[in-house]
């Protein structure tokens, strides 16, 4: 507990007049970690990154690298690497000279610069492009050079601000793979900003999910998906169904809810409540809650098995997607619920439009949040 | 994206196929014809007179190069043009920068002022400077009023007056090419340079300066060449002791009716101008590359 965190973001806020871009962000990052700031646009993730880069000072809070504050250090003395969303190679310099730039301003010897440039070109697999000009390279290649330039001076920390958002899907995945490989090879600590959750889950050790200038939850992709801490996290990561309900009775862990159609959900003892116990969350009988179940955790029961289901619904559409069947249903109160069934996940024919079914889920698959 | 043409790329830039270039020729033919008729023909005529009058030979050129008076006029012409170019560049740079980074409303307003000044009659503007700069003019009276000076400064009929008047006239010709270059720059590139470890001065010297070089070259060339042949402003705001070449040529033609000598002086000016263009073309391409 006494060890100093590698990078520590402490209570950072950034306000522009009455508008707060970042409300209150605190996070410790370990050396060598790959942490992604994920969130919708305007959630404060990029602003937090700019504070670390030194392009903006925070209104309050501090950023410490290896225990000492970065705030008084100007950008060019922070020794941080960064890859930007836009292409930022120096258009008048060759690829080799672009990578050499940070070493030249550090007055390294020519021999050292040459060796380092070669090593960096190898790292991003662009050896053959050393003498080209940036305008002669594709967007993906330019970002790889930008990555090489940012790593040339061996910075302890690499910031990446949506570096792949201008690239098409295929190229994106290719370079994500490259970034992952380079992270493994160099061991550099990476802070990565994106609004693409797939990218975040693919790349990171940990994801910090931003919303309205705050971090809603920090954890592995698995944590965020399986145990979303808030209604927002549950809605942002992956697909989710929210059933509106009222607390019927609550005592300790035992919990009963009533859906708008009057059906009771007594079997929720195994349901995990975000936060601690029901009492801890301050829920009492009569409170509005939202019950979240992932589409792939839902089951459909029909005919003889009907009684095993919990929520009556009508099928409105069935789509065959190869590995799964996607079933859309409507509850009696008009709520839409989507279900993903593995192709061998039902008996007989797949559910047809207008079929009366009941929806259910295994114990522990539902999570309960205070209604937003 | 900013693309700075480099000498190594120069041969690859123009990819337009041959037939298209020839098709374009038809459209520019009237303008070319006009130039041939009213520019090339008179110039050739003047050149001929310079070697034919009063008798065939190079005596007019010998006279220009042999006379300290004429050489002094040449020297003064280059001094004024150089000075005006330098001052214009120093004044235009912040303006071009502001135009590129200022909020749209402000840059539109400033643009309006610049263009409006270009549209105002040259003579009117030059006379306005005479009123402002003369011994009993507003500037001198104000300076004396606030006690900064006791005697009026001589701001007119000398190098100071010419430089002030011409710098003012030339400003738009420097601002516009500079602005065209600066606005293509992406500020993120400078942030990237800074994070790479470059100090403010290094960002300026290693990134900003090379990227605006073509715009600076275009503006400097335009202003310097225009200044070399300028007549009205030097004639009204300058003194007899620092005459410029255009004034000399006018005097030779109008007062002395010495067409031969005037032709020689004019032709030398033309050769010098073309030489400067050639240097510019060698290093930056026509008109400073993307600045056009």
How would you characterize the overall build of this protein?
The complex is a heterodimer of chains A (372) and B (292). Chain A has 372 residues and is of the alpha+beta class. In chain A, 23% of the residues lie in helices and 33% in strands. Chain A is built from 8 helices and 21 strands. The longest helix of chain A has 18 residues, at 169-186. Chain A is elongated, with a radius of gyration of 25 Å. Mean pLDDT of chain A is 88; it is low at 274-280. Chain B is mainly α. Chain B folds into 2 domains: 15-52, no CATH class; 67-284, MetI-like (MetI-like fold), CATH 1.10.3720. Chain B starts with 9 loop residues before the first helix and ends in an 8-residue tail after the last helix. The interface between A and B is medium-sized, with 31 and 23 residues.
Précis, in short:
The complex is a heterodimer of chains A (372) and B (292). With 372 residues, chain A is an alpha+beta fold.
List the helices and strands and how they pair.
The complex is a heterodimer of chains A (372) and B (292).
Chain A: E1 7-16, E2 19-29, E3 34-38, H1 45-53, E4 60-65, E5 68-69, E6 81-83, H2 95-105, H3 110-123, H4 139-151, E7 157-161, H5 169-186, E8 189-194, H6 197-203, E9 206-211, E10 214-219, H7 221-226, H8 231-236, E11 241-251, E12 254-258, E13 264-265, E14 272-273, E15 288-293, E16 299-301, E17 311-320, E18 324-331, E19 336-342, E20 356-360, E21 367-370
Parallel strand pairs in A: 3-8, 3-9, 6-7, 7-8, 14-21
Antiparallel strand pairs in A: 1-2, 1-4, 4-5, 9-10, 11-12, 11-15, 12-13, 15-21, 16-20, 17-18, 17-20, 18-19
Helix pairs in contact in A: 2-3, 2-4, 3-4
Chain B: H1 10-13, H2 18-52, H3 59-66, H4 68-101, H5 104-119, H6 122-133, H7 138-145, H8 159-182, H9 187-195, H10 200-228, H11 232-237, H12 245-254, H13 259-284
Helix pairs in contact in B: 2-13, 3-13, 4-5, 4-8, 4-10, 8-10, 9-10, 10-13, 12-13
CATH architectural label of the largest domain in chain B: Orthogonal Bundle
Number of strands of chain B: 0
The pLDDT mean of chain A sits at 88
Provide the CATH topology of the largest domain in chain B.
MetI-like fold
Q: What proportion strand of chain B?
A: under 5%
How far from one another are the termini of chain B? 15 Å
Largest interface, and how many residues on either side? A-B, 31 and 23 residues
Assigned CATH superfamily of the largest domain in chain B: MetI-like
């Amino acid at each position: 507990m006494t060890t100093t965190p590698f990078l520590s973001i402490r209570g950072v806020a950034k306000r522009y007049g009455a508008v707060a871009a970042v409300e209150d962000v605190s996070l410790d990052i370990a050396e060598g970690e790959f942490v992604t700031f994920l969130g919708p646009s305007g959630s404060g993730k990029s602003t937090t990154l700019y504070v670390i880069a030194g392009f903006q000072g925070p209104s309050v809070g501090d950023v410490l690298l290896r225990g000492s504050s970065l705030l008084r250090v100007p950008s060019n003395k922070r020794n941080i690497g960064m890859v930007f969303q836009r292409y930022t190679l120096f258009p008048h310099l060759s690829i080799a000279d672009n990578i050499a730039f940070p070493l030249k301003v550090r007055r390294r010897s020519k021999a050292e610069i040459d060796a380092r440039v070669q090593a960096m070109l190898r790292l991003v697999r662009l050896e053959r492009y050393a003498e080209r000009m940036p305008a002669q390279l594709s967007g993906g290649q330019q970002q790889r050079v930008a990555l090489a330039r940012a790593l040339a001076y061996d910075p302890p920390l690499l910031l990446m601000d949506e570096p792949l958002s201008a690239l098409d899907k295929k190229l994106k995945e290719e370079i994500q793979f490259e970034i992952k490989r380079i992270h493994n090879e160099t061991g550099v600590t990476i802070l990565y900003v994106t609004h693409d959750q797939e990218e975040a889950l693919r790349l990171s050790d940990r994801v910090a999910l931003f919303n309205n200038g705050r971090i809603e939850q920090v954890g592995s992709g698995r944590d965020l998906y399986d145990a979303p801490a808030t209604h927002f996290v549950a809605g942002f990561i992956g697909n989710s169904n929210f059933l509106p309900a009222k607390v019927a009775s609550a005592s300790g862990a035992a919990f009963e809810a009533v859906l708008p159609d009057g059906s009771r959900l007594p079997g929720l003892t195994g349901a995990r409540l975000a936060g601690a116990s029901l009492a801890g969350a301050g829920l009492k009988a009569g409170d509005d809650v939202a019950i979240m179940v992932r589409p792939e955790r839902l089951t459909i029961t029909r005919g003889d098995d009907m009684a095993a289901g919990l929520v009556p619904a009508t099928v409105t559409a069935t789509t065959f997607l190869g590995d799964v069947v996607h079933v859309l249903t409507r509850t009696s109160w008009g709520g839409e619920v989507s279900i993903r069934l593995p192709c061998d996940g039902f008996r007989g024919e797949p559910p047809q439009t207008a079929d009366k079914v009941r929806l259910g889920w295994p114990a522990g698959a539902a999570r309960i949040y205070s209604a937003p | 994206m900013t693309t700075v043409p480099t000498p190594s790329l120069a041969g690859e830039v123009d990819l337009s196929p041959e037939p298209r270039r020839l098709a374009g020729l038809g459209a520019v033919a009237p303008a070319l014809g006009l130039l041939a008729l009213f520019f090339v023909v008179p110039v050739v005529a003047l050149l001929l007179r310079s070697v034919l009058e009063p008798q065939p030979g190079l005596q007019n050129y010998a006279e220009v190069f042999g006379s300290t008076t004429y050489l002094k006029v040449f020297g003064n012409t280059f001094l004024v043009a150089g000075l005006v170019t330098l001052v214009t560049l120093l004044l235009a740079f912040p303006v071009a920068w502001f135009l590129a980074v200022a909020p749209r409303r402000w840059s539109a307003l400033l643009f309006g002022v610049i263009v409006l000044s270009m549209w105002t009659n040259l003579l009117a503007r030059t006379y306005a400077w005479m009123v402002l700069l003369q011994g009993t003019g507003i500037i001198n009276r104000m300076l004396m009023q606030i006690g900064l000076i006791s005697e009026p400064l001589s701001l007119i009929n000398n190098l100071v007056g010419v430089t002030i008047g011409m710098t003012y006239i030339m400003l738009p010709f420097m601002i516009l090419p500079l602005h065209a270059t600066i606005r293509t720059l992406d500020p993120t590139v400078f942030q990237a340079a800074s994070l790479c470890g470059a100090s403010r001065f290094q960002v300026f010297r290693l990134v900003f300066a090379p990227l605006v070089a073509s715009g600076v070259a275009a503006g400097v060339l335009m202003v310097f060449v225009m200044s070399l042949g300028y007549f009205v402003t030097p004639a009204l705001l300058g003194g007899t002791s620092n005459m410029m070449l255009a004034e000399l040529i006018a005097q030779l033609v109008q007062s002395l009716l010495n067409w031969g000598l005037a032709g020689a002086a004019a032709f030398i000016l033309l050769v010098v101008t073309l030489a400067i263009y050639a240097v510019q073309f060698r290093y930056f391409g026509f008109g400073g590359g993307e600045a056009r």
